[in-house]
Amino acid sequence: MSNPIYMTKEGLTKIEEELRYLKTKGRHEMAAKIAYARSHGDLSENADYDAAKHEQELLEMRIAKFEETISKVQVIDPKDFPDDKIYILSKVKLKNYKTSKEIEYTLVSAEEADFAANKIAVTSPLGKALLGKKVGDVFETKVPAGVIKYEVLEISKSF
Fold first, then answer.
1. Which of 31, 41, 49, 65 is deepest in the core (most CB within 10 A)?
2. What pLDDT does 110 receive?
C-alpha cells in the first residue's frame, strides 16, 4: 500500500460529497453536453464534440483522483496529538521577525491546504519547519521569498 493521506473527517466528507456530485450530476451534465454537440452533424469536423469529449476525459480523471485519494485516507483527530508540540492539525500563532507581524496557520494535509484560509500543508517548506516545534522556539525556514525567521507564540488544537 502507498503512503496514507492524513485528513480530518471534515476534509474527507468534503471530498466524498464532491465525488458523489461528479459521479451523478457531473456525469449527467457531461452526457447532455456530448449529446448536444453530437447533434450538430459530422463528428470528424465537430469542434464542439471534440471539446466536450476532452472535458469528459478531464471529469473522469478528476473522479479517479478523488477515488484514489479516498482509498488512501486515514482520518485523524487533533485529540490524538499532544498539545505542547506542533503536529498536523495544530493551529499555531507565529511572529515573523522580518515584518514583525503575527500570523496564524493551521497545519493540514496537502489535500486540505488552503492558503487563503491560512491552512498550510505539513509538506510545505514552512509546514515541515514547524513540525515538532514548541512555544518559544525560534527558527528560520527557506520559503520562495527567501529565508524567514519565525518565533512560535502559541499552539492550540485546530478543531
1. 49
2. 86
Of all residues in the chain, the percent with pLDDT exceeding 90 is 55
Pairing of strands 146-157, 90-96: antiparallel
Whose CA is closest to 137, among 117, 155, 113? 155
State the CB neighbour count (10 A cutoff) for residue 80: 9
Q: How many CB atoms lie within 10 A of CB 142?
A: 11
d(CA 50, CA 30): 13
Rounded to whole angstroms, what are the CA distances from 51 to 24, 35, 37, 56, 62? Answer: 21, 12, 9, 9, 17
Query: What's the pLDDT score for residue 67?
Result: 95
If one compares 36 and 63, the residue with the highest pLDDT of the two is 63
DSSP 84: S
Query: What's the confidence (pLDDT) of residue 111?
Result: 85
Task: Give me the mean pLDDT over the 123-137 stretch.
Answer: 93
